[in-house]
Predict the structure.
Amino acid sequence: MTQKDEIKKFWDSHPSGAQATQLAPGTLEFFEEVERYRYEAEPFIHPFAQFPQWRGKRVLEVGCGMGTDLLQFARAGAEIVGIDRSTTALDLARKRLELYKVKGEVREADAEVLPFPDASFDLVYSWGVIHHTPNTEKAVEEIYRVLKPGGNILIMIYHKYSWAVLRILMKYGILKGELFTRGFRGTISSHTETTDEKNPLTKVYSRKEARELFSRFDRLSLTVCVTASDGTMIPSIVRNFFSPWIGWYLLIRGEKPSKGKKD
């Protein structure tokens, strides 16, 4: 089994957001509970995504999962396309769009090989996904390729300098000795998702590494975001003081250079 197969198998068994409820998957009540939990737990998604801003625009979500954010773009009047590797998540996303009677395309695809022509989208959105693919650099190249000149990216990846990483290193890396057997990357990769089953692949990035990763984009901005995953053991006054530099999410905005500008 390849690493990509292992990643797909993991997310087929653990669709992101499904842990928020014990309700029957695919029901209206299930989707309502998943949505409520998502935006209560991560209230910064709405101000980051600015869903109403994309009305009439063609939007691609890379790693749409069960379609929670994809639905918000559709509700706002965007022309939506969502891709994912997880068959389980895609089946639920299709069911969701059908239940809410919104139009949109959802299909299985690899973030590293997007099945779309060049310059197809006004926005590529991705929330916590491309750090789970083996060749994240290739995924970013593909995002750049399918964006129209002047198109935008809104992307979240995990931040290396965070309380969440420190907690994982202390609990698993040092106390359980995994730093000596699995190294930094292996330890972090295994313990970043809220499940007892070890996650096959997760990468974390410093702001410098993220800037290099997205260096082809103009108007690049990176914002560190403290989340519930950073935990409550650190006093809030300390977390708030360090919030510009230390936090689990790295929120990235950028723009593909317009036509005529040297690439």
About this structure: The chain has a mean pLDDT of 93. The beta strands are 58-62, 79-84, 105-108, 121-127, 147-158, 218-225, 249-255.
